[in-house]
Task: structure prediction
Amino acid sequence: MSTVLEIENLRVRFRVQSPLVALLKRNEDPYIDAVRQVSFKIEEGQTFTLVGESGSGKSTLALAVAGILPVADGSIKFNGDDVTKMNSQDLMDYRKQVSMMWQNPVGSLSPRMSVGGLITEAYKIHGLKDRDREVEASRLLQMVGLPKHFSERYPHQLSGGQARRVGVARALALSPKLIIADEPTAGLDVSVQGEILNLLNKLQDDLGVSMFVITHNLNIVRHISDRTAIMYLGRFAEQGPTDDIFANPRHPYTLALLSANPEPDPETINKDRIELKGEVPSLMNRPRGCEFHTRCPYVQENCKEQKPAKKQSSDNHSYNCHYPLAGS
Amino acid sequence: MKDVIRRVAADPLGLMGLCLVTLMVVSAVLAALIAPYDPIALNIMDRLQGPSWSHFLGTDQLGRDLFSRVLYGGQVALKVALVSTGVSLVIGTVLGMIAGFGPRWFDNVIMLFFDTIRSFPTVMFALATVALVGPSLSTVIIVIIVTQIPTYGRVVRTQTLTIKSSEFIKAEIVMGASTFRILTVHILPNVVGPLLILASMDIPTVIALEAGLSFLGMGVKPPTPSWGSILNDGYTLIRITPWPIIAGSIPLVLVTLGFTFLGESLRDQLDPKLRKSL
Amino acid sequence: MSALPTTENVLTIRDLSIEYTTDRGVLKAIRNVNLDIPKGSIVGVIGESGCGKSTLISSIIRLLAPNANVPNGSIEFEKQDLLKLSEDDMRKIRGARLSIVFQDPMSSLNPVLSIGRQMTDIQYRDKKTMSQKRQRSIDMLASVGIPDPESRLKQYPHEFSGGMQQRISIAMALQAEPSLLIADEPTTALDATLEVQIINLLKELQSKMNCSILFISHHLGVIAELCEHVVVMYAGEVVEQGTTKDVFRNPTHPYTAKLLECDPARIAQKTRLLPTIPGEIPDLVSLPPGCVYKNRCDKAMEICDSKTPSWTDFKDGHFVSCHLVEAT
Result:
């Protein structure tokens, strides 16, 4: 299997003060790091899921991989070429091979374009004049299980689930190698969440496309993901094969997330429930030492001062913690 | 678009607006056919007559038929309205979109430009222009274009700024759409709605502006009839006969009402939040 | 129509129907709904998009849209029918005996007033001095877990994080010690770790103040953990009601059963094909006769096409509206 995407030591920063204000306040570093020292790989035909809560930096990471955010440090290598250093020609090629599904299903569709126009727009943008747009629109709609006449509908006439499928169809237009899916089930009722996930799984099985899924819904991760990473304050707290992460979480934050999911079964009392204290610290005031120490239920003295080194257990399961939880 | 017009026609206010506007446009365009007299034909014998079957609105101090003058005056008003609104819309929209979507420094420059124009009182600006190039219809049109550009430009800029951060614009960027494509295909159509409403509400202002400038003698040169010049003549004659002033006012009032009703109805139909039923 | 004895209820809804007059016709948003909230209990409402929960809430607090119409039904709250009260009397109840927390805390919080100002403002009914009201606000904020409340009174809502804003909304809702708190998806917008905190907070406050809570959510796990009783709504009708244990362990209505099946949290085995409920809810303007769920039901019978099932107590307070139960 070849590596489709390789991210190494990625850092994405945002400026929080204008140069003048920074000068006046003697702030030498008027930036916040939304993504810091992130490294991971996505193999061909695999699904890599990024789990994190608000403020973790997951959306920023997705946008950086999509190539619309400037990167301060590190590299994003797609089939060996660094996206952050591409010229506009190569970047256009990259955009043909990597597409994105957005969190807001209706809001990510241009309101005045018909569904048919939206899903085949990529052909227009990349100058593929030989494609018959009507034929392609029908083909794509069929792939996502929508009837042909939907081609004439407009975004405001679609339900959330239908709009999501249109988003998938649009992402598939140029037969990409990698699809980035930002919260694919957000806003969907439980009874239809399965439809989108089943669709994504089937497309992956049929077309061999890799997927980079971003979500805060741990419940769905197990069923769609090969590898999972848990993100906190812009860093990966833990990363590894999904089954391993669920069976042997090593970082306390991972365990807290897993146990935060109430079981829909009133008979089981969640004995291992970990309630995290406090809230996510501001990115402008990152805690010293291990950045999770302010909320960690197992915090020890040296966690407050020393940054944990990256540890690794077998088969590519890595985590950053001084006192990782015992594996079973 | 057709749907919108249908809805506007269904609304009583909109219907009235549409009728008045159509009336004005048709009467101006067909003035040559409808006008019973030549608007500049002198007929001193019949001067200062009140309304009658031969002169619907009476005659002015030179015996010219006021009704015909009003009809031909409509041509001037229409020309001014269409040309100046059209040109300032296009320029304002282009500048507004670039200001909203482009780099910050460019936005600042354009806003400075807009604010400078807006800080000039219109009449002063008109006087200055007339002093430079002399009074004529073109002068009026140029003055109006320049003063209207910031009006449309600001609205377009604000709309563009709002739409710029929408998720669908991000989606277009990720797909590789060029800035030109994004501006023309995705931003422009979403900006046009409020613009149409603004333009239709602005036309009476523009027509009144032309009438005002012509009234002050800075617009069309006599003997070309313009509603403003009819008013001017009527103003000097007001102690003798009220009819010329009435003749000049009627079209202005009707046109203002017509476009205002039309604009309000358009706004009601295009803004889903104001629609009455669920 | 049999139901739980109403003497022990704080809220009793009987046979409530609500319609909206729209361009396309009369939309029957809620039809013949029965709901019981016993004193001092937490009742959950499970429902997906279009089930009518927003309309239900709006009808309880009597803030229905102008084109709404109540053809039949009663809402008995503390021995008064809320539908028959004058607007003045209703205003005395809202915020004092009956209060509400929304999904978006900024629906309850005024962005231009400080928190302290808002919390003392809503005490306008009390004849206390300003400093007493201030102290009460501080106590209330402390009880919902806002750290250092005294110093934060002068801050504005945007200076608090989402989780904190929700806590403040809860503090404001409970300040007058209402008999019933309606919580409309209060945790849906929050991350899982924050959701856990809010659930525990609600549990604690409820037992301290002995108020009743009507908790609306589509998150089955949260309902199972928090609520003693649960009501399942579908397309404007209540299809099942009972204790959470009963309904989750023995879901009797096919919709409830399917819904529980679809929740990925209940699916222990990793699977590439998640269950879904195919189809969509019917058009509530032109409702076909018979059972509203029949077009999506895998157990539909002939009678379901023509006759609406009746509300049956089939086992000690476990109610269901389904022909399958009537048959036995």
